UniProtKB/TrEMBL annotation:
InterPro entries tied to this protein: DNA_methylase_N4/N6, SAM-dependent_MTases_sf
Pfam families: N6_N4_Mtase
Record key words, sorted: Methyltransferase, Restriction system, Transferase
Source organism per UniProt: Dorea phocaeensis
A GO MF term: DNA binding
The protein, known as: Site-specific DNA-methyltransferase
Domain DNA methylase N-4/N-6, first and last residues per copy: 47-110
Gene Ontology BP, a term: methylation
């Protein structure tokens, strides 16, 4: 019988790659203060969509400013990619700084958020569409109150009414849906979804789709404060139509400000893909180079932390409502998406660590292959604890990037008032300046 080898962190080859002193490195070293609160960091469209694992907008802003100031990238000739784009923090900051940008992510909600948060919408057109949607929601939400609303009811489309009733019946009979949503909320979400899917797919519809997916968690029984959804029996009941209307109204108000702060000529786009897929990443980069007549001058990215649980199941309530939004989800099924996501939790064996670093090796090899000579790859990465021992993940990243051919030009550690929740505090970074403590690092590599 095979004897299972015991896991010893000190013998792990990736851990061993972190065993050097930062003082031995000849690059520039800085300390960045990022002491703003979450609400101070959530300006403009950063606030559109709650996304777990965001990095502070100020970090994205500071990195891009650094690259421009140091003449590393030229706005006229270069574009930037975030290959772990998440909800588009880098892309929003790139647009504000006047730099073309592209995001890659494996989470369709992240890709949708990137696309909507960076687009300059015609607000009067959006408001007109919103008047129509709002009218429909009001009508079908009140369809049973015939005495009060008989004049409105006359305009009810029987086919749509039946569609909504049938779908509501089907979902209310589904125990998984009933576990997470009340009958009333299911019916209201069916009304919103039906109304959105009646519209042709367009950039405009994406705006309202994002608002729809943004409220799912809030109107469910899931705890608001936890990352992974768990039922909270005491949660206050919320009205889904009201929550959606509030969300869209806020988004519309912000869009005016966003349009004044940005220039519509500055391009931004996002793609659903695994960053470890060389052909797909190379095709996207080549297509963007061709279209924009620009080079890939820099990559700014923030991989999930080692020992940080996978993100896709965090969005499982939203995925329950995703059927029919084909343009957003492309051809990948939930299971394919889940399988392509980088896995890094729980870290209690060599295989888990290997999987994490092999994925990153492939993702940054793709970056190396596609970046122009002299281009930069900036990685924001924090340390973690494995079996109560410090793993200086950022140092292993330095070794990995050097093995790929990059040179480390500069690094910064950062402070933060952000992300020090219970989970982060115990397992990730405590962000002190003490030697031998967990650190959050910003690494600037040059090709
Ligand atoms: C730490 S988050 C990035 C958050 C982002 N910086 C932001 O501010 O929203 C890491 C991201 O990596 C994405 N991811 C995981 N596996 C991936 C893969 N194989 N290809 C592309 N993205 C992936 C996750 O979906 C998640 O959005």
């Amino acid at each position: 019988m095979a004897v299972k080898k015991l896991f010893d962190l000190h013998e792990n080859i990736y851990y061993q790659k972190s065993q050097f002193e930062i003082s031995e490195l000849e690059c520039e070293k800085e300390f960045w203060n990022v002491d703003e609160t979450i609400s101070e960091l959530a300006y403009l469209t950063h606030d559109y969509f709650r996304y777990y694992g965001k990095f502070p907008s100020k970090v994205g802003k500071m990195i891009l400013e650094d690259l421009i100031k140091g003449n590393v990238i030229d706005k006229e000739k270069d574009f930037v990619i975030d290959n772990y784009a998440g909800s588009g923090t880098t892309l929003v900051e790139a647009k504000l700084a006047g730099i073309d940008s592209v995001g890659l992510d494996i989470n369709p909600f992240a890709v949708l958020a990137c696309r909507v948060k960076t687009y300059n919408y015609d607000v009067s057109k959006l408001r007109k569409t919103w008047n129509h949607i709002h009218g429909e929601l009001f009508k079908y939400n009140n369809v049973d109150k015939e005495d009060l609303l008989s004049c409105v009811i006359q305009e009810v489309d029987d086919k749509k009414k039946r569609r909504i009733e049938e779908k509501t019946r089907e979902l209310v009979a589904n125990t998984e849906f009933l576990k997470w949503f009340s009958d009333k909320v299911i019916q209201q979400l069916v009304i919103i979804k039906d109304t959105l899917l009646e519209m042709d797919y367009s950039k405009e519809r994406e705006f309202f789709d994002l608002g729809f997916f943004a409220i799912i968690r809030r109107v469910s029984y899931a705890h608001d404060a936890e990352v992974r959804p768990h039922v909270n029996k005491k949660k206050r009941k919320r009205d889904a139509i009201e929550a959606f209307s509030k969300k869209i109204t806020e988004m519309l108000d912000t869009m005016d400000e966003w349009n004044s702060a940005t220039c519509s000529q500055v391009y931004s786009n996002a793609y659903l893909t695994s960053n470890a897929d060389l052909d797909r990443v190379t095709n996207i980069v080549n297509q963007e180079k061709e279209l924009r007549k620009k080079e890939l001058g820099a990559v700014v990215s923030h991989p999930p932390y080692l020992n940080c649980f996978d993100y896709i199941p965090v969005y499982k309530l939203k995925f329950m409502w995703a059927e029919g939004f084909e343009e957003i989800f492309g051809e990948m099924s939930y299971d394919q998406i889940k399988k392509s996501e980088i896995k890094s939790y729980p870290v209690n064996n060599d295989e888990a660590i290997e999987r994490y670093f092999v994925h990153n090796y492939n993702a940054y090899r793709n970056v190396y292959n596609n970046l122009r000579d002299g281009g930069y790859c900036c990685i924001v990465i924090g340390d973690c604890t494995v079996k109560k021992e410090l793993f200086s993940v950022h140092k292993s990243f330095i070794t990995m990037m050097q093995e790929l051919g990059f040179s480390l030009e500069k690094m910064a550690y950062r402070s933060t008032a952000y992300g020090t929740g219970r989970y982060a505090y115990n397992f990730r970074a405590d962000y002190s300046e003490k030697k031998d403590s967990k650190q959050d690092a910003i690494l600037f590599f040059k090709k």
